[in-house]
Every structure is written in structure tokens, then in C-alpha cells.
Specification:
The chain is of the alpha/beta class. The protein has helices at 2-10, 19-24, 55-72, 85-98, 196-206, 222-229, 241-252, 279-282, 292-297, 305-308, 313-323, 332-338; strands at 13-16, 31-36, 73-83, 100-108, 122-129, 140-141, 174-175, 212-215, 233-238, 258-259, 262-263, 265-267, 270-275, 286-287, 301-302, 328-329. It has one domain: Vaccinia Virus protein VP39 (Rossmann fold, 3-Layer(aba) Sandwich). It binds S-adenosylmethionine.
């Protein structure tokens, strides 16, 4: 009872503290998704955390929070862990004993040569569930990949062009359409901030509106922002008060991102992830060529081009309902940050 009260007090908040101490007070099976992006033990320059420990010490610490993540995740829930392959293979070998492996998601990252190695070009997201039958999962789609110069769809659909999905294919386990944040103006003062649309993709796939997502290493709040944009609840934890302050500032300006009542992920004026089952409801928001040969040549576009140029949120919503019989609600800083 005491723990349940404590748990309720954490919802939609970002706690300052040691994630192990906080998670230990959370009852078993309380949250729908746990996502962790821990320090990589690579001497990254955090504000206060020291990121270089003996390998043994680092791995045994990781085992402790991995155990807590699995324990507090609901039986129908999902566990995601983001890291470099070097550490993920240890995490996977431990998680295999206590949860059920679904995928190793590889996402594109520009690496730099490290001497006598291959060029490291991806980060991994381990994707585990607690039950092999009764776990939450939604089919998700991404935009067709196209040639940057000529705009043509890269995949050759040959004689099956008429069967091409108008939005794009089912998302595979290699994500090359989401990149690290490269521009300074889009970064917070944090060495390892993840892109919000990475988290949004994971949450659209694994949760529903109102579900609870916990991130024990929230940094400057990427998971909380994604959850709030998608109408999910969140619990964030970080040991550094400065990062929590930045997160709270961003959260105060965050609103949900919906098209026609469906949550979607948007980055740089493009919808990056939708649920397959939502497509029929949101397709009227796009200009879509009818002829499959045209679709092969031209990207589908959101129809509200004019709206995207208007910054203040209140005007966006008014314009929206005047121009289209649908609602597109957008996160106001999205416009400010991504123009
Ligand atoms: C890789 S970063 C997470 C970045 C985050 N995903 C984002 O997009 O901003 C790891 C974070 O873990 C925090 N941290 C380190 N040790 C911690 C602990 N024991 N409990 C809670 N947070 C901790 C650091 O302050 C750092 O912000």
C-alpha cells in the first residue's frame, strides 16, 4: 500500500535520484514499458556522473538495474535497452534468463574509425518482453525510402507496384531513417541525447494511450517528451538535477501529436512512424498520387504545408480546423526547434 502511494507520486514526474534506490521502491509489474539508455562507460562528459568504471563493476551495476526493470514491468509489458553492441551482448545474456528476446534493433549511427576495427555504424536497442504470447505489439510503418536526388522509391516493386502501401513498408529491425542529433541547435547540454522520434517509434509499437513508461536514465527527457506527445504517462529518473531541470522546462512546452485522433511521430515536417491500423484514419491528411507509377516517383506529403510555417500553437490549431475537417495538434517547440 505504502509502495503503491509512492509509485503514484512518481507518475508524470521526473525524479532526481539514484535509479536503483527509486526502482527498488516500485511494486512488481507496475509499468507497461521500461526503456533504459544508461551511461556507456566510455568517459563521456556528463555534468556530474563519472563515466568510467572497471568493467566488472560496470557490468554488475548494470545487472542490478536490469533486474529492477524486468521486475517492475507488467506481465504484458516490454523492456528496451539502448547501448553499444559491446555491452548489449552482456545485457542480452543476462536478460535471456529473466525475459523473452524479441529483437535486436540496429539503428544507424555515424561512427569514427578506431584503429584496427570495422567502422562502428550502429547502436542497438534490445527488445524483450515478459510473456511470449500475451505481450502488447502494434504493427508500425515507415515512409518508403527514396533516392535523395531523384525522389524515386529505392526498392524495386517490379510488377507489384499496385500493391505498394501508400505510406510505406512495415518497419524492419534495422532503422536507417532515424539518425543521431547532429545539429547543435537541436541539442541540449547533454553528451548523449537521443532523438525523440526514436522513442516515439518504440512507444507507438509497444504501448497504448494512457500506458506508463519508465526511464531510469532520462537525461534531458527524451522518453518523457515522447510519452507526453503520444498521450502516454511517464516516470523519469536522473541523478543530475541540471538534466532534470532541462527536462521539466521542455515538458512544460510539450503537447500531443495527433492526426485525426491518431498519435503519430513527426520529424522535420514528415510523419516518420504510424500504426498500420491507423492509416485509414489519417490518410486524408496527405496528398497521395493515385497512380502507383506516380507514387513511385513522388513522396506523399502532409497537406497542411501552410500550417507548418506558423509557429504559435494556437494559430496552428485554428488554421487547421479552418482548412481541413481534422485536427493536427503539434508540439509547439517542434516548430521552433526544427525549422
Ligand atoms: C546516456 S544518458 C541518457 C540520455 C537520455 N536517453 C536522453 O536522451 O537525454 C545517461 C544518463 O544517466 C544518468 N545517470 C547516471 N547514473 C545514474 C543513476 N545511478 N541513476 C539515475 N541516473 C543516472 C546520467 O546523469 C545521464 O543523464
Amino acid at each position: 500500500m505504502q509502495n503503491r502511494k509512492y509509485f503514484d507520486s512518481l507518475i508524470n514526474k521526473v525524479a532526481i535520484g539514484n535509479c536503483l534506490e527509486i526502482m527498488r521502491k516500485i511494486p512488481d509489474g507496475s509499468v507497461d514499458v521500461t526503456f533504459a539508455d544508461p551511461p556507456f562507460n566510455l568517459k563521456k562528459k556528463y555534468n556530474s556522473y563519472y563515466d568510467k568504471h572497471e568493467v566488472e563493476k560496470y557490468l554488475s551495476w548494470c545487472k542490478e538495474w536490469l533486474y529492477e526493470m524486468v521486475r517492475i514491468t507488467k506481465p504484458t509489458g516490454t523492456i528496451f535497452v539502448h547501448n553499444i553492441p559491446k555491452w548489449l551482448i552482456y545485457f542480452g545474456s543476462y536478460l535471456n534468463e529473466v525475459a523473452i528476446f524479441r529483437h535486436w534493433i540496429a539503428w544507424d549511427a555515424m561512427g569514427s574509425p578506431l584503429g584496427k576495427t570495422l567502422l562502428p555504424n550502429h547502436y542497438g536497442v534490445l527488445y524483450y518482453v515478459k510473456s511470449d504470447k500475451d505481450y502488447k505489439f502494434h504493427d508500425i510503418r515507415m515512409l518508403h525510402k527514396r533516392c535523395r536526388a531523384c525522389g524515386y522509391i529505392l526498392k524495386d516493386y517490379g510488377g507489384k507496384k499496385d500493391q505498394m502501401h501508400k505510406f510505406g513498408p512495415i518497419i524492419p529491425d534495422v532503422w536507417t531513417d532515424i539518425h543521431r542529433i547532429r545539429h547543435k541547435k537541436r541539442r541540449d547540454e547533454h553528451p548523449c541525447q537521443l532523438p525523440v522520434h526514436l522513442l516515439e517509434r518504440l512507444l507507438i509499437m509497444s504501448t497504448d494511450e494512457g500506458d506508463i513508461v519508465l526511464d531510469p536514465f532520462i537525461g534531458t527527457g527524451t522518453t518523457a517528451i515522447a510519452a507526453k506527445r503520444l498521450g502516454r504517462k511517464f516516470i523519469g529518473i536522473d541523478i543530475d538535477p541540471k538534466y532534470v531541470e532541462i527536462t521539466n522546462r521542455k515538458l512544460a512546452e510539450t503537447e500531443s501529436t495527433m492526426i485525426n485522433g491518431c498519435y503519430v511521430s513527426i520529424f522535420l515536417d514528415n510523419v516518420t512512424t504510424v500504426r498500420s491500423k491507423d492509416w485509414d484514419k489519417i490518410k486524408e491528411a496527405f496528398t497521395i498520387p493515385h497512380d502507383p507509377f506516380e507514387l513511385e516517383k513522388r513522396e506523399i506529403k502532409l497537406r497542411d504545408k501552410k500550417i507548418k510555417k506558423i509557429k504559435p500553437k494556437i494559430i496552428i490549431e485554428e488554421q487547421c480546423s479552418l482548412l481541413f475537417p481534422m485536427t493536427i495538434r503539434r508540439h509547439s517547440t517542434f516548430h521552433l526547434n526544427h525549422k
